[in-house]
Amino acid sequence: MTKAAAILLAGSRPGTDPLAKAAGVAIKPLAPVAGEPMINYPARALLAHPAIGKLMILTQTPSLLTGDPATAWLGEHPCVIFEQSGAGIASTLMALLDRPDVTFPLLVTTADHVLLGPAMLDQFVREAEGADMAVAMVERATLLARYPDSRRTWLKFRDGWWSGANLFWFGSVKARPVVALWQEVEQDRKKGWKILSAFGPVALLGAMLRISTLRGGIARVGRRFGLIARLVAMNRAEACIDADKPDDVALIERILGERRG
């Protein structure tokens, strides 16, 4: 297959991030996890994977990353490009999709996806290949079987309760209308009903009445926009554990310690 370009979202939302403030760093991607800035973990995983050709890091302040001794290697790596990030994720992605020098497929993830590893990327790339758009999710039973105390934001469907895994695939420019819709509901990303309602009353009612499966719903959304859209149900619980809160960081550091031990 054609190698994908990976996009690593490393920007800052308005206001002060609590993890960055607690760590005494300017931006969240520099907040330490197990002794080093969190961005280093997903960056290394992406650059080491054979399906990834180059890595674009989106941030409002590239100099904070290239100027920090612990992350300066990113600015020196031949496969890393820094791109200016806008105020929102979706609006920044929209600008990239419209650029003639940006090629597909694109794999998008976040700087706080500390536990991203080769097995997750293997599964996601394998199952997303051939789709115009794919999104990775973790079903609640998968997470709770391994980490029963972990708390996530869940979307309830007939085929389970699902949480995002911060992995997105854009296989072609056909994904642009869906990103445009994402831009409209970006401020309501934690309000599942608001996101669903943007896809129409059938999707909203289907979820509320548990008459729709997530997999089928995503496929229907794709057909609405004239593209192939696919759910990738991740089989590793760690796929939906990001470094968003102090409790998350503590859990991630424990998992990293177990791996190293």
Automatic annotation (TrEMBL):
GO terms for molecular function: nucleotidyltransferase activity. InterPro entries: MobA-like_NTP_Trfase (IPR025877), Nucleotide-diphossugar_trans (IPR029044). Residues 27-139 form the MobA-like NTP transferase domain. The keyword Magnesium applies. Keywords: Magnesium. It comes from the Bacteria. This is 4-diphosphocytidyl-2C-methyl-D-erythritol synthase.
